[in-house]
Design goal:
mainly alpha; 0% strand; globular; binds zinc ion
Length: 266
């Protein structure tokens, strides 16, 4: 609990001034859903993530019998930064597809819709995520690297880095960083993914190259202003936890289908 609290205070001290300096619009008081997102914060990235991290280190042992020794020697012998980059890149490829499927498959969208239900997107709303959704993303991002023979502790280290980066890409910032948009996902880039009026796009979490490759890159001139989902999602944490098992978000199914309306990058 002390680690979770420490991480929360650190992110709060870092992100509050950042969002204040580059705020797109002034905010009056606390936004709706902040307390719910706070519960998500303490349950998800560290609660679920920590358990899975332990599982991944255990899985490394299991895979060590299946992965050819030559692979492990090859990957383990790479310079640290190269290993780090490879794990990020492999994880990003599988995360891209897990994310894209979460928007096109009814069953997955039930859970992913919780993440998109926030009417405002900021650093804390990054952590509004159904635990099933978290587990799917953690498996997609980390298991292939483990199966390839990269070391478990390195994969866990990359997962922590990724989670921190995701906090930044959800930040409520007007900062354009236009020149970065083809290289790395920025808050502006990811906010377009949360835009209700945008086509299903910008599924990459780190490298826009996957959106460019698979035709889902989206960068309009106007900043997104319309966040959330069309169907009703419970406002409380418990409701968000159980509703996906009970009710399909039928009225939103039209939105996350296909990717044919992607506009050209400017
Ligand atoms: Zn999404």
């Amino acid at each position: 609990m002390a680690v979770r609290g420490g991480l929360f205070i650190s992110l709060l001290l870092l992100m509050l001034p950042v969002e204040r300096i580059w705020s797109p619009r002034p905010r009056q008081g606390l936004r709706a859903g902040v307390w719910t997102d706070l519960v998500h914060f303490f349950v998800n990235p560290i609660g679920v993530g920590h358990s899975l991290a332990m599982a991944f280190i255990g899985l490394e042992l299991v895979f060590s019998f299946a992965v050819p020794k030559a692979w492990r020697t090859l990957f383990g012998g790479m310079p640290f930064l190269l290993q780090f980059g490879c794990v990020l890149f492999v994880g990003e490829f599988f995360s891209y597809w897990a994310h894209r499927l979460s928007h096109s498959q009814t069953l997955l969208w039930r859970f992913h819709a919780v993440h998109h239900s926030s009417g405002d997107v900021d650093w804390l709303s990054a952590h509004r995520q159904h635990p099933f959704d978290t587990i799917l993303f953690l498996i997609a991002a980390n298991l292939p690297a483990i199966a390839l023979g990269f070391s478990g502790p390195l994969v866990v280290f990359v997962a922590v880095f990724h989670r921190t980066f995701v906090t930044f890409t959800h930040a409520r910032m007007r900062l354009e960083l236009r020149w970065l948009r083809l290289l790395i996902v920025t808050p502006r880039y990811h906010h377009h993914h949360h835009d209700r009026d945008a086509p299903p796009s910008n599924f990459a979490g780190l490298f826009p190259v996957f959106d460019l490759l698979f035709g889902t890159f989206h960068w309009p001139e106007a900043l997104p202003t319309n966040y959330g989902v069309q169907h009703r999602v419970s406002k409380g944490w418990l409701g968000q936890l159980f509703l996906p098992f009970i009710q399909a978000p039928a009225d939103d199914l039209a939105r996350p289908q296909g990717t044919s309306t992607i506009r050209k990058a400017r």
